[in-house]
Specification:
A hairpin with a 2-residue loop joins strand 1 and strand 2 (14-22). The chain is built from one helix and four strands; from the N terminus they run ββββα. The protein has a domain at 10-66: Phosphorylase Kinase, domain 1 (2-Layer Sandwich), CATH 3.30.200. The protein has one helix spanning 53-66; strands at 10-11, 14-22, 26-33, 39-45. The chain is α+β, with helices and mostly antiparallel strands. The chain has a four-stranded antiparallel beta sheet, with no helix packed on it. It is globular and about 35 Å long.
């Protein structure tokens, strides 16, 4: 697994603070919106998978599907995109 050095960097409007976890498809980081201070989790697709269109499509489909789930035990998705 190849990990990008993202801790301390800003991705979009989010400053990456620390790594929370990793899986077969991506890495999840704790982050904070730089303008409004909102805490967030940012999930990044593993770099070695980013050239596989099927994997990228699945990653985005999962994000889209997660926006439909409204449950106190599931985090809200409020942004996704490419970096």
């Amino acid at each position: 697994m190849i990990l990008r050095v993202v801790i301390g960097r800003t991705l979009g409007s989010y400053k990456v603070l620390s790594q929370l976890g990793a899986g077969g498809m991506g890495v999840v980081y704790a982050a904070e919106h730089e303008l409004i201070g909102r805490k967030a989790a940012v999930k990044l697709l593993l770099p070695e998978l980013s050239s596989n269109k099927q994997v990228v499509d699945r990653f985005f489909n999962e994000a889209r599907a997660a926006t439909l789930i409204k449950h106190p035990g599931v985090v809200d998705i409020f942004d996704f995109g490419y970096t």
